[in-house]
Write a structure and sequence with these properties.
The protein is mainly α and 187 residues long. 73% of the residues lie in helices and 5% in strands. It binds zinc ion (ZN) (2 copies). One zinc ion binds next to α9.
């Protein structure tokens, strides 16, 4: 009997899939803000459990989920494309602005750690300043961190071996065999 009922339900769900989905959508739109909040609060409070549960679920249903996602993408290709386009455009400005703020504050942190003026000539105009690899090899290192040298320095707690130089002295040093022409002039 039990088996029959399950069979029946399964069949029902398959046959009425679209209806059920619509109903779910409507229901979700109808539930109140508090209910939504209490749900997300529950998920926050039980973060570990929730994560574990969904990881297990995903693992168990990997194939099915992938197939489902593929189907969804192909059925809703146009809609997805538009959504991405508009949401991307909508938040573009604020995203760019926040990225800019983040880079500026990262730069501040880096030069607070290594000094806010060129160790060679004393230039202290922020846009002119760079971080110099004291022992050379700057190009190689920059490449290995994908050019994100400030980020790398911060992540590594501002290690020794770096100093603040202005662009001028940095280039001067590079083309003058490791010594800024400023210093060579003094001699
Ligand atoms: Zn300088
Ligand atoms: Zn110099």
């Amino acid at each position: 009997m039990q088996g029959n009922r399950q069979e029946y339900l399964k069949k029902y769900r398959i046959e009425h899939r679209d209806e059920i989905r619509e109903y779910g959508k409507k229901y979700y739109a109808l539930i109140t803000r508090e209910q939504k909040e209490s749900r997300s609060k529950y998920r926050r409070d039980h973060a570990e459990e929730t994560r574990k549960y969904s990881a297990e679920y995903r693992k168990k249903n990997e194939k099915k989920l992938r197939e489902k996602a593929r189907k969804y993408r192909s059925e809703n290709a146009e809609e997805i494309k538009n959504k991405v386009k508009t949401s991307f455009g909508k938040y573009r400005e604020s995203r760019l602005a926040s990225a800019k703020r983040w880079r500026a504050s990262l730069k501040q942190e880096v030069f607070s750690a290594y000094g806010k003026s060129c160790v060679c000539c004393g230039e202290n105009n922020m846009p002119f300043l760079t971080i110099d690899h004291i022992n050379g090899e700057g190009g190689k290192h920059r490449k290995s961190v994908n050019g994100r040298i400030y980020y790398w320095l911060k992540k590594n707690n501002f290690p020794p071996g770096f100093q603040t130089l202005c662009y001028n002295c940095n280039c001067g040093r590079r083309i003058n065999g490791g010594v800024c022409p400023h210093l060579a002039l003094e001699k």
